[in-house]
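To whoever is on call:

I kicked off a structure prediction for a single chain this morning and the downstream step that reads the tokens threw a length-mismatch warning. I double-checked the sequence; it's 934 residues and nothing unusual in it as far as I can see. Pasting both halves so you can look.
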Amino acid sequence: MNSLEKTQSPRIDEFFTVAEARFDRWRGLLQSARSWEASINQLPVDEKHQVVVSASFEELRQWEDFFAYPGPQLLRTLDERISSGDARGARDLVQSISSALLTHSYRTNPSEWENEEQSLVGLSDRLPGISEDAASYRPYFEVLVVNPGRPAMWPQFAQDLRKLRRSEDKFVYESVFVGSFEDAILGTILNGSLEAVIIYDGFSFASTHHSPVLRQFLTAHLSTSVPPYSENSSLSLARAIRLIRPEVDLYLLSDREVEKIAADSGAKGIRRIFYQVEEPLELHLSILDGVGERFDTPYFDNLQKYSQRPIGTFHALPIARGKSIFKSNWIRDMGRFYGLNLFLAESSATTGGLDSLLEPTGNIKLAQQKAARAFGADHVFFVTNGTSTSNKIVEQALLSPGDIMLVDRNCHKSHHYGMVLTGAQPLYLEAYPLTQYSMYGAVPLRTIKKALLDLKAEGKLDRARLLVLTNCTFDGHIYNVERVMEECLAIKPDLIFLWDEAWFGFARWSPFYRRRTAMGAAAILETKFNDPAYREAYKAQEKQFGPDLDPSDTTLLTARLVANPDKVRLRVYQTNSTHKSMSALRQGSMVLVKDVDYHTVEEQFHEAIFTHASTSPNLQIIASLDVARRQMELEGYEMVNRAIQLALDLRRAVNSHPLISKFFRILGADEMIPVEFRPSGFVDYLTPGSNWTTAINTFREDEFALDVTRLTLVCGTAGFDGTQFKNKLAAEYDIQLNKTSRNSVLFQTNINNTRSDVAHLIKVLVEISREIESRLTQAGEAGQEAFANRVKSLMTDVPELPNFSSFHRSFRARPASVTGEGDIRSAFFGAYSEGQCEHLKLSSPEIDKRLKDGPELVSANFVIPYPPGFPIMVPGQVITAETIDFMRKLDVKEIHGFSAALGLKLLSPAFLKTVKATDEGDWLPRQRAVATHS
């Protein structure tokens, strides 16, 4: 058994804390070295300090093999100083390395790579960034080299690569050498600076490094056991690396028949294959070219060039070039605030290489193609007015009047309005409630399958066109996207999916999350549907249930269904609010398409873009989308890991703090996801005993998982409602947060956050907790009782969350139907005539009378309280006593679609008597009437 096969189970966060843990190890070593130096002048000399430094260095050193800096030379020097008892020299070198790592100065400062005893002679052959043009900044990255040669020869190989550098190279890189499959995987996981991997044939399999994390990751995540020296070991390694980091460029060097390797289907992810090292310069140039392809931002690059050209503007945009700003007597401060470049880069023209967002043919088209490659999509479309618009574009392109759209009732309001615009009829799906926290979770798969089977039983499955779900939800519930699509396609093979991943765009760059994204799951299903073993699984299902699933068979609701690979049409759309989780300007959004039948809807898709996209898009938003893609392809892996790590740190700090945890806590997966949706047995990320294997299992098996970066902090136990606590943090501490509920607030870590941000929040929570404790101590019995009553009202006396009732029979073609789809469009526009509406005050006895005796109360519009932020009433919905009770108990100030002065807006009973719904809604009858008249 090698050292990687030890049975120790590492904590989940060890995977995400690599970078910060590395800094901490060096700072710990520095502290030990300082103590050692300080002890030298004390008598008697205590040798334990040297022992501690030596042990700390040995523990640290095994990890440093996977990073270019400080490298073997400095590590060897440090080892010699520690071994020889040179405390001061060891401390100086550790301090220098630790500082360089923390500030990343080694990427640009050549002196960081040399100790003070070494000469700078020949430095240009060895160090990053040194050339005749040293003044110009060149981005730095690292290359992993999987080399079967003797480790003693690796420094010479590294030197050979350095000698290939040229002053005109746009980037500079250093190499990291490993000799085995497992070490290559470990290097890929640990080193976020890797941008390319060079794989030499003939490497061994097993590692000698002590890393239980690697063993668990290989076993649980990759599910592979590649034998050493197998025929396809290089291709197997390439595949394994791409599973972890698909953005990294792969190069294969072989002394075998490279032509056959190149023709192998397993070589698909390899950028280039070389016959051993016959062309070292070509390898060097290929590495730079590969990184350059990701670094290239066609639109942003051209916009910079455009801004520096002398442009005469005779179009309708006075702000372009900034003359009306900088020459003004009154608004020059705007120019000082934003700077000149913003105005030089403004234009309403699509010439000069700026391209048109509506019909791109130049650099916007290229930028979108690069985004498609990065996200694993077939097509990507940039949107500059938010994901609300992205959602409506997709829905207008895919839906026609009378189509049925299955949708989470708690989805974003843009989807509800999308159905109003298209005339599609919503079949609302209920998510499981988290009543105690006044929020909903996600829609169980059983609910979705039952809706589809009910439609099939009633002969309406052909009208079921689109399933829309939010992934992840506002509060962090992540669907098992692969399973949802697979089982839905088993019932309806051509069902289209729209995954609203407004909050989840970053997930592409985490191997932990990727399989639960729309594009990640679609890639998995593509592979499955082409696997002969999957076809056999379908045949077995066919024997059990028959070729046509019987909708009356209730066992289908719990069975793991398999789609017919010969009939399935994989049609997946994803929208993401790029500005919410990546470095894009506000309203920057993308539509991702992976649809085998996209050609059949391409024309209407472009028509939908023409409908919703502005003819005057913001050029800076387009440029920021381009740059956001570049950043995520080049450093997204490391940045997303850091965001996850910060979230885990924050969860642990809050829930384990003796004072904070008296009044606040961050909800874990066990409190956000009912146990029946966690068959893996997973409890929470920070539960004792949870490890990497259990985390991977929950993402593979469980119906729902929790996004670590979305942190629901319960504040009701501190006597604050969500809105009150949000306002307190903003007004008194300048802390901004995301959303609120009756008794909680939602924090979110992202690629912008730092450890300092976490420390600041913890400090504030300690201060607030101390204030509460002090106040309660001084308040006496009466004050403590009042506090307890306040907590009870927030945490216990919470109103039941109302489910969607039904559409009024006037908006249902078949009121007796089991399925509840309705004509929301007719109800919505019915309210446009004031004479067809009425208003009733929420407290009016008339409401209670009509709830009891009729006529029914029917909503004329959307009513959306914040929180919880979803429509509790939609146009045409029958209002029930439960909904009224919820409304009356609400103590929030913001309710869209409701005026307390006017009361509830209702469709009048007289108008409802005149409405006659059809399966197609009001559109087709009107067209038929026009045709008849003509």
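Update from on-call: the warning came from a stale cache, not from the record. Cleared it. Sanity check on the structure: The first helix runs from residue 18 to 39.
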